[in-house]
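Hey,
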Amino acid sequence: MMMNRKNIEAYKKSYEEIDIFLKQFPHLRHIVLGELKSKSGKNLFRKLNEHSKELQVKQEVIVKKHNSLSAQYEELDHLKVNMNDYLGRDKTEKKNESVIGAIKK
């Protein structure tokens, strides 16, 4: 055991990393286990890391777009409120007003 200590530690570390990965992505369990059984694990994890990096880049783009659209929405909502104030429209009046009440006026 002392002679193979480095290999045993590397195995334990790999096992822990695989366990963490499979907890994060349980839908990939059958693919990962199949690749590990066919002894092409190094290529599998290299491909998974590349795919993960691609997904992170896509996520960053989506987050930037979301933030931009959120800022635009807030600006447009603010303009809408200002226009309604300027035109004398009140949201609560419209909700409480019925069709018959509008006809009577």
